[in-house]
Design a protein that fits this description.
5-stranded antiparallel sheet; about 10% helix; about 300 residues; mainly beta
Length: about 300
C-alpha cells in the first residue's frame, strides 16, 4: 500500500509539472525569443521594453503563461494637465498568432492620461492585473492600488479600487503574492502582510527582515516565501541603493541579508526586483541614463544560497 501511494504521488507530481510546463509558452517564443542571460545581467529587450524613448520604472510583469508582458515608464509623450511634468504610463506586449505585438499603451489607463500609472503585477492565476494610479490633479500621497480583471479572455478597461485596508492615506502600490494566500506590501521601509481571499485584503502583520535594513521601494517575495529580495542602502554596499537577498532559515526566521554582488549591484541604483513565473530569471531596474530593465539567470540566487553548488 505504501509503495502504491508513493507511485501515485510521483505520477501526480509528474502530471502537475507537465501541466505547468504546457501552460508556459514554448522556450523559443518566450521573452520575445531573446537569448537568455547567464550570471551576468543584461539589458532586457533593448528597443522593445528597455527603450531610449522612455525611462522604465518599477518592475517587469510577466503573465503566468509567459504570453503577456507589462511594464511602466516615464515618457515625455504624455504630460500632466498643466504640462509641467512627464507622466508614468503602462505599456504591454502580447504573444498572439505566433508573434509578439509591438509595445502598446494599455487601454485601461486611458481614463488617467495626465496622472501616474505604474507598477503592474499579475495575480497568481493571471486573471487580475494590479497597478497603482495617482489621478490628476496630482497629489503624491494619493497613490492607490487598482486592478482590472480578465473576463472571457479579455481584459476589462475599468480599473477597480481595491479599497481599504490595503489602500491607505499613504502611497499604496505593488502587491506581492505568495502561494499561501498571503500578500505583501512595502510602505517605505515597512513590509505589511495581508491575507487575500475573494478580492478582500485583511491586514495580518508587519514583517521585519532585519533591524539594520529598511527595504526601500519595491521588493520581491518568492511564491513559497523561501527568500525575499529587496533594495536598500547599507554600509559595505556599492555606493547607492543595492539589491539584497535574505533566505528563510530552518527556524522560520529571516537570515542576515546578503548583498547580491558586483554583477548585480553597481555604483548606480538597483531596485524593483522580481522573478519570472517560470522561476528562471530575475529582473530588476538599474538607474542607467535610460533607467533600463535588466535580467539575469536565477542561478545567481542558488549560488548565493549554496555557494558550492555553482563553483
Amino acid at each position: 500500500m505504501k509503495k502504491l501511494l508513493l507511485l501515485m504521488l510521483a505520477i501526480l507530481s509528474f502530471v502537475s509539472c507537465t501541466q505547468t510546463e504546457k501552460n508556459f509558452i514554448e522556450t523559443k517564443d518566450a521573452y520575445f525569443g531573446l537569448t537568455p542571460p547567464g550570471l551576468i545581467p543584461e539589458v532586457f529587450a533593448p528597443g522593445i521594453v528597455s527603450d531610449s524613448t522612455w525611462a522604465e520604472h518599477c518592475q517587469v510583469a510577466i503573465s503566468p503563461q509567459g504570453d503577456e508582458i507589462y511594464w511602466s515608464a516615464w515618457t515625455g509623450k504624455y504630460k500632466s494637465e498643466d504640462g509641467s511634468k512627464n507622466t508614468e504610463q503602462i505599456f504591454y506586449s502580447k504573444f498572439e498568432n505566433g508573434i509578439w505585438s509591438k509595445p502598446q499603451l494599455a487601454a485601461f489607463i486611458k481614463n488617467n492620461p495626465h496622472g501616474l500609472n505604474g507598477g503592474p503585477v499579475f495575480s497568481p492565476d493571471g486573471n487580475k492585473l494590479f497597478f497603482y494610479q495617482v489621478r490628476s490633479p496630482w497629489v503624491s500621497s494619493d497613490m492607490n492600488t487598482y486592478y482590472i480583471e480578465k473576463i472571457d479572455g479579455k481584459w476589462s478597461d475599468k480599473p477597480v479600487d481595491v479599497g481599504q485596508p490595503y489602500n491607505t492615506e499613504d502611497k499604496d502600490y505593488n502587491p506581492i503574492f505568495s502561494n499561501k494566500g498571503i500578500v505583501y506590501k512595502n510602505l517605505f521601509g515597512k513590509i505589511s502582510k495581508y491575507t487575500y481571499n475573494n478580492n478582500n485584503f485583511t491586514f495580518a502583520d508587519s514583517v521585519i527582515i532585519h533591524k539594520e535594513f529598511r527595504p526601500v521601494w519595491n521588493f520581491y517575495m518568492s511564491p513559497k516565501e523561501e527568500y525575499v529580495i529587496f533594495a536598500a542602502m547599507h554600509e559595505g554596499g556599492f555606493g547607492d541603493v543595492d539589491l539584497y537577498i535574505s533566505f528563510k532559515t530552518d527556524d522560520d526566521k529571516w537570515g542576515y541579508p546578503i548583498n547580491m554582488g558586483d554583477k548585480v549591484n553597481t555604483d548606480l541604483r538597483e531596485r524593483f526586483p522580481t522573478v519570472s513565473p517560470d522561476g528562471k530569471y530575475m529582473f530588476f531596474m538599474r538607474h542607467t541614463p535610460g533607467q533600463d530593465f535588466f535580467w539575469v539567470s536565477t542561478d545567481i540566487i542558488r549560488k548565493l544560497r549554496k555557494p558550492e553548488s555553482l563553483k
